[in-house]
Design a protein that fits this description.
- There is one protein chain.
- The chain is of the alpha+beta class.
- The protein has 3 domains: 149 residues, no CATH class; 80 residues, no CATH class; 118 residues.
- The chain is 41% helix and 15% strand.
- It contains 11 helices and 10 strands.
- Helix 8 runs antiparallel to helix 10.
Length: 381
């Protein structure tokens, strides 16, 4: 796997089939050498992402995290230590973060203190607040930031593929992954959905690892796919970003707000239809979900009307954007009507392709040929 490529692993875990991105396994590998390190992986992983060497050591009555800083000083991240007590399972009720130097006794800095009498007591055992305070101090010390934007973009792309493949997201405190629908217990259906996800992920350039038993080798390889509806709508975002005149931004916004057949109107119609369909499934809880969906849709419909009105206000401005005019000041009007460009961008083309080319699949992700004789013990995919 290339360092800049995300690995997605499809596997059976107990009674469920899950899909996990490489970030999940990086966290486990970095912190999973012992039970005590796994307990603090939510702290050691983000610190390691910023280049710090971390260890988990035993303090007075509980384990602490020690992070070495480039100047020789160290951060000590500690749950309550005194008086020595048996802490209940789960996360501590408070945190204390100090900075000290083994060769300089004058350096003693309290970075975060959420103990009952501390300046951050309001936040108690909140890990996000703790990490925010750590990041702020590490920024001041000049440490490089963690590569969040790229990781999030990769995870978001994998999430989108798995979502379209029919997987259900699971978000827990320490981890996030996807799984097959809980009521999907038929092995044939499971293999069909896993195979579909496998093919879709490969087509998007992801490195995919999968247990061959979860795949259906008889399923034909997928054909060429055009841009998804979401990707085609992405051209509206690009049009607005590059717009120098309000008329150009309005042309793109109009595709969303047009009465009758605008994108927002079609979304409202689709959700209302979904509510009607859901209500007829026959379970006692189904009318509740259907009514809730109708309530949300009604709100969305009212927001769509407000956005349509705001679009009219923007159209009335009919002026150049001050931040864009220097680039295109010589243009009095668009050389080509913006509306036609937007329509062309949204048109479905049978030859359309994804903007990002798919990477060459790794050996473990190669689609197998159908067996011509009795199955061998080699992986089918």
């Amino acid at each position: 796997m290339r360092p800049d490529q995300t690995l997605v692993t499809l596997q059976r875990e107990g009674t469920r089939i899950t899909a996990r991105t490489s970030e999940s396994f990086i966290q486990e590998a970095a912190a999973g050498t012992s039970e005590r390190e796994h307990q603090y992986s939510h702290l050691t992983t983000p610190l390691r992402q910023r280049g710090l060497a971390c260890t988990v050591e035993y303090g007075l009555s509980d384990y602490i995290v020690r992070a070495e800083l480039p100047d020789g000083s160290a951060l000590i991240i500690s749950p309550p230590q005194e008086p020595a007590t048996d802490h209940p399972p789960g996360y501590p009720e408070s945190w204390l973060v100090t900075r000290g130097h083994p060769d300089d006794s004058t350096l003693h800095e309290v970075i975060y203190d959420s103990e009952p009498d501390g300046p951050h007591a309001l936040y108690g055992g909140s890990v996000p607040r703790l990490l925010a305070a750590l990041d702020a101090r590490l920024d001041l010390l000049g440490l490089p930031p963690r590569p969040e934007p790229r990781r999030l973009a990769q995870e978001s792309a994998a999430d989108a593929v798995l979502h379209r493949a029919g997987f259900v997201p699971v978000v827990l405190f320490r981890e996030r992954f996807h799984r097959l629908p809980s009521a999907m217990t038929n092995l044939v259906e499971q293999r069909e959905m896993v195979t579909r996800a496998f093919d879709m992920l490969q087509a998007e350039g992801f490195d995919v690892s999968c247990d061959p038993d979860l795949l259906d080798p008889s399923r034909p390889p997928p054909g060429d796919h055009g841009l998804s509806l979401g990707d085609r709508l992405g051209y509206l975002t690009e049009s607005i970003q590059s717009a120098a005149h309000t008329s150009e931004a309005v042309a793109a916004l109009s595709e969303l707000t047009a009465p009758g057949d605008g994108v927002l109107q079609r979304v409202v119609e689709s959700l209302n239809t979904t509510a009607d369909w859901w209500e007829g499934l026959g379970e006692p809880v189904d009318p509740h979900y259907a009514n809730r969906l109708r309530y949300i849709t009604k709100k969305l419909d009212s927001y769509a009307l407000e956005i349509r009105s705001m679009r009219g206000d923007l159209a009335d401005r009919h002026t150049y954007h001050p931040d864009k005019v220097l680039v295109r000041v010589d243009r009095v009007a668009p050389e080509e009507p913006a509306g036609s460009r937007v329509a062309a961008a949204l048109a479905v083309s049978p030859t359309a392709r994804r903007m990002t080319p798919a990477a060459v699949p790794s050996a473990r992700a190669v689609r197998p040929a159908l067996p011509t004789a009795s199955p061998s013990s080699a992986p089918g995919r």
